[in-house]
Amino acid sequence: MSISLRKLAQAAGVSVGTASRALKHQAGVSEQQRQHVQQLAIELGYDISRLQRQPIGRILFLLHAQHTTASASPFYAEVERGARLACLDKGIELQPFSINTNSSIRRQLLQQEADAIVCVGFIEPEILAVVQALGKPTTLIDACAPQLASVNPDNQAGTRLMTEQFIAQGRQRIAFLSGSLAHHSIRLRERGYRQALFNAGRLADPALEALIAPGLDLASGTRLALNELLNLPQPPDAIIAFNDACALIVQAACLERGMTLPDDLWIGGFDDIAAAHAAQLSTVAVDKAALGAAGIAQLLALAGHQDIADTLQPVRLILRASTGAISTQ
């Protein structure tokens, strides 16, 4: 009688997900682990035919509850649209889902009866661990984690390009207004800002790096961080916000203060949501629908036992009136 995958994983001293990837020659497993698991499978009589999957008919689109709020939905709604169109083309059902952390995560995931899972945006490591342990094909969109394939916009290049543009146009005190650095995308956006300063021979001023305090909603947290920046003895002459939703709050708060924009302050965002165009906000454009479609393509390749690699989607700098540019984009 063949042993279960869980017992094989226990014998090998690895997670169920790692054992599954090792047997299917997928990424995220060292060659030593792969050989160890495969050798044990032979010795213990594991039935390799168990790994032959039926065609994927249902993909779980797993989104953190914080991304279902009004401030986050413009970005992730477009990612979901791209993923849904890619699934529709393949005859696959896409099921959006958000974890309730007050009940069993594993039970919630199993109840969805999905064949594969795409995790979108920030998701806590402990939840990702439960997802991986299910042994289902899994990929990440707008996120990064060990041993999981991912698709991301080129976050670092985006803020680097914007900061370089601000420097070239004579901005002297460029601030970065950041959300939680637990989010992979935000960390890289901050890194791009710092990289541009370094490349220009400028020292990064810690006073110009404002962080939205944990536990605060985006609107109140942004306004509090903005007040700290504007009350500095030498306030910034430009602010790059970690996303457009944050940048639009900065723009509104500055106008309420009676500031003249962009004469008093340049403002830039990231993502290019529809509201950014309406507000003439300079931003870094992300093709959000393409991001979602690329995540589904990567997931299906993974399920098909194909070689895959983490991918970066290109981004584009768009300059509008918030930084003194004349643009209708």
From TrEMBL:
SUPFAM superfamilies, sorted: lambda repressor-like DNA-binding domains, Periplasmic binding protein-like I
PROSITE patterns: HTH_LACI_2
SMART domains according to UniProt: HTH_LACI (SM00354)
Domain of life the protein comes from: Bacteria
Pfam families: LacI, Peripla_BP_3
Ranges annotated as spanning the membrane: none
Residue intervals of the HTH lacI-type domain: 3-57
Keywords tagged on the record: DNA-binding, Transcription, Transcription regulation
Protein name, as recorded: LacI family transcriptional regulator
Organism: Deefgea salmonis
